[in-house]
Amino acid sequence: MLLPNSIEKVMLNSGTTLRQAMEVIDRAPHVGAPSGIALVVDGSRKLLGVVTDGDLRRAILEGLELNVSVDKIMTKRPVTIGQELSARMKLDEVSRRVREISADRKSPVKIDQVVVVDDSHRAVDIVNFFDLWRQSEPKSRQLAVMGLGYVGLTLAVSLADVGFDVIGVDAEEKVVEMLQARTPNIHEVGLESLLNFHLDKNLRITRGAEDFTADVYIICVQTPVNRQRKPIFSHIDRAARGVARLLKEDDLVIIRSTVPVGTTRNRLLPIIERESEMVGGRDFYLAMAPERTVAGSALRELRELPQIIGGLDRNSSELATSLFKTLTSTIVNVDTLESAELVKLIDNTYRDVNFGYSNEIALVCDGLGLDSIKIIRAANEGYPRNRIPLPSPGVGGVCLRKDPYIFLHSTLDKKFEPRIIAAARSVNELMVDEILDKIEEFGRTYHRTRRMKVFILGFAFKGVPETSDTRDSVTLDLVAKLLKRKSKLFGFDPVVKPEEIEKASVRSASVEDGFRGADCVAIMNNHPLFSSLDIYPLLESMNKPAFFFDGWGIYEKEAIEKVPNIIYGRIGSP
After folding, report:
1. pLDDT tens column, 558-570
2. pTM score, two decimals?
3. Distance separating alpha carbons of residues 153 and 424, to the nearest angstrom
4. Class of CATH domain 4-133
5. What is the rounded CA–CA span in Å between residue 473 and residue 437?
């Protein structure tokens, strides 16, 4: 078997002459073998000693003949390290041995190369001491973050902020141009300040994967689902091929994207190995470290939340751990790549199931003529075993709406088909139709079935913490259904830009203009601004009778209906 670094080409037996040893060492760099050193081994490759080009020079200066056997000058107790040690432990072991030798010789000893041995003391590799140090000291490495969306950009600026040299890479020309112009492509508290501080210092933004090299590649691209709710792997595949073309020996690849269980090992790894002609766990390292932050609080949560890490092998896990320890003090190591993939899917499906439960309660209460919010609050009050969330207009956001389907995809052809996760997702997808039904019921009752003016507040998929992310927003689902009914739609969001609202065929309006003359107003996310509106003059300006849909139960029904001819509605309210 070909050993790492082709070290069999610098192996000698104890009877090799100094002249032959010189020839082997001189030839080594030209045949892909480590330079400046040769290993003296027995017939089973058990290490007997080492000889360096410095040893040979000293021997010649001392007058030894070139036909003398190499065992006369070799170092019989070279510094060696065990094959199974992590990078950090290897460095610690070398440092300990150097201190011991220095104490014995009563003078400092300098080590350039270290021999790696197996349990039988057979030589299996030669590592450069500086490279070993680089492996164990994460901040000495160049990092490339592949994909600069909500996950990648916040990670890139956070890593730059703790001292790394970071290259941010994105395939979208517009994204790269915005970031190079110091304008974040997403809304995140504190992001613009960090971007401006680190850009062109220890943070660089680029589109091309050919004008840089790195030591660590962190893949943060999206994994959307198609109309059939099956994962789309094209972004992951493209990123894997791009990394493979740049990969060099001892680099670390980390995948941060949310993927079906088994993707890292069975899809990403084979692509990288095939394209790079290297072997994971031997020539490069691979780990899964899923993103767990929430949009709007990502910069803070990157420093506070525990980081899950699963490695292809022990060294991969150790290297990824040393990197993320610079961001957060709590690392949770799991046994496998698959375990780390599943943790992320559990995080998001658990929340979707919780919300699905409360929304199902709301639908039941609607049918029973009961108020779901009052009932859930009563059930939670002083009862420590209940943490039932309040109902909502549905569950939005790219993570919670797609990750349950990625979870379900992971279980195909397995022994058990999940039921609760699929049912909760189905309930959450019903909610927008419930909202539409309430609006249409109002229209039928008051003979306004067509061309109603509907004013919608909240286009981001959530309001707390605030974000500009409209991907998979329930609001956009409602907009699409109302447009089919020829409603005149107006919209406002405290964070989403007006041009983004208008892309959805909705006319952007101020709060005052939106309320004025509206037949229906619908609050669709829970941004704090909506709870502080001067609501009575706004309600007075509506076209009476009017329907006020309070998707998050921000206002009390009794308070809103103090205004004559205002009909209050929300999910789970009779």
Report:
1. 999 999 999 999 9
2. 0.78
3. 31
4. alpha beta
5. 19
